[in-house]
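User: Show me an example of a complex going from sequences to structure tokens.

Assistant: Sure. Here are the input components:
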Amino acid sequence: FCLSADIISTVEFDHTGELLATGDKGGRVVIFQREQESKNQPHRRGEYNVYSTFQSHEPEFDYLKSLEIEEKINKIRWLPQQNAAYFLLSTNDKTVKLWKISERDKRPEGYNLKDDDGRIRDPSTITTLRVPVLQPMDLMVEATPRRVFANAHTYHINSISVNSDYETYMSADDLRINLWNLEITNRSFNIVDIKPANMEELTEVITAAEFHPSQCNTFVYSSSKGTIRLCDMRALALCDKHSKFFEEPEDPSNRSFFSEIISSISDVKFSHSGRYMMTRDYLTVKVWDLNMENRPIETYQVHDYLRSKLCSLYENDCIFDKFECVWNGSDSVIMTGSYNNFFRMFDRNTKRDVTLEASRENSKPRAILKPRKVCVGGKRRKDEISVDSLDFSKKILHTAWHPSENIIAVAATNNLYIFQDKVN
Amino acid sequence: MTGKGLKRKLPEEGDLPEGSAVQKGSGLYCTQRQSVLNISLDKYNRGQKLLEPSLRRSVLIANTLRQIQEEIRQEVSHPGTPQIGSPPAAQISPLSESNSLKESLPAPAPPSRLSMENHPMGLGDSDDWTLLSSEEDFSLSSAISSLLKELDVAIDGSPAPSPQRTPLGSIENLETEKADKQEPCKAEGKHGGCRPSETAFGNLEIMSSSYLRDVALDDLFLDIDTSVYERDAGPLGGRTLSSAASDEFLKYLPSCHPSSFSMNPNARDLNELEHIMEILVGS
């Protein structure tokens, strides 16, 4: 039994990997913190425990349009840590919020005019001056909303991305991208607008957007037609003209009624190095060299056995699922999700790939994940699963990879799985 | 990679082999295409009934619909190509050449033509077409889409077509019959002598008139027109307000209104109506 509010809708490690944030359909954010390694319990090397839970977004009602605005968290992005507190951006369809998560492990005690419960002391009992002293207390983690960036998006926000200048960030919806200053909530700059003058002419929407990891003037956005545009904010205030346009020519032998739908890009991510970017469409993951626009340098088949099932997947809407993709810390391995709680990893150097499953039945703590295989036709071997037995309701859309270690977080509907590379 | 080596099999319910594995123009391809068209129309309408339809999903479905409609349209205007089938090209191409047809229409104006002109959707030239408001745009698109839907009904009702026929194959069937009754055109090509074109136009006019006598064209158009005004009560059902974003988009995209389905499901009439609609649209 699964409460729909518990369905995890986004997963993100912070820049150190010490914290892992998840957002869910109910508008909650849960942050996990990695346990410090302790000599006493060496086998509990760096497990993640709940650190903070808070309600980020509430359902809202747009009275003008008579519409409910979902509280589902679409994306979380961490800001790099600059002081003792942690900051993250979380967004639903319409509003981005900046949250400050801070620890409190000391409490002032010994106020002069009030006692520790907060009651005002009887003035006649005050005979000496006393200054409050900070006393240790049980650790308390507080989350406070520091900024609310609202009313800038007519359409549904699908992406947020923090700029490498750490001063600005962008939010992208179906047709527009806005640039914000983290300090200023009542104003944003529109930097991309693909809304046609006549909505009848609309044939393409923005599906994802991201800032370059080191060039603060550069960002990319992907479209439902399988194209990626790289824009330079120095060139124009309104980046409707792109600097680079990435599109792979269609393979005529693969043409079908669903060619466009499966070419729609669901996620785009720069490599950590900033030299490459990766895109996810329905059946493949593609790695692009930023200097080569006419085709990707690598293409990985995630679940090509679905190519003959596209009509069924169109009927049951699965063809519209938006899978995310991630790089590992060294950009040598890429990972993305699939159906039946499977997720796939591709090693770019060895060209080897593996299919793993995130499920309770198959994962005991510290058990090693066994590679899975989908059997396409003919005889099914013992451990294989046939295409027709795949459970399409169990989809892994959101995954995250620790920035430097081989630790991955996989969201399977309402469950979060954290897998670590077993050393020794 | 699946594709060329796949053995073709009859499409099972909801599980069609990929389109590229099937030769374009074959009956199987057309069945697949019809199926995808139906699913798309249904999906699109259901999606619009939601309080907040996903724009990405709507756009993708609409593009698929357009792609299929465009394909069908192209097959109708160029039936001489392998997609359609075997009848003599000379008889077909003058008939379906939109330009020549446009020239012929204003000349002798059958009563139907007048009623078309009086109706807001009746168009003489392409200039009028561009002046259409989005509402009328919508009604034409909805007409086309509802016609395509009706074709499906007609196809289902009629005996199984031979593999070479497309859903619109009965036009050429009809042409051949009529031509035989008149003076058979020699296959000189469309410019070979004035006889073939005249005969073909004669065919068209005769057919049009008879068709229009058979069916009350005004009523047909009234039906479609009504669907525009009744939009809010139709597929949008119980929605009081709709989001501005999808509303603008919705105006353009086809929706199937139940009232337009009450047309005479006769395949022949529908094919001709479709044909006439094509001309009006200026395909």
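The lines above are the inputs; the final block is the predicted structure for all two components together. Chain A has a mean pLDDT of 91.
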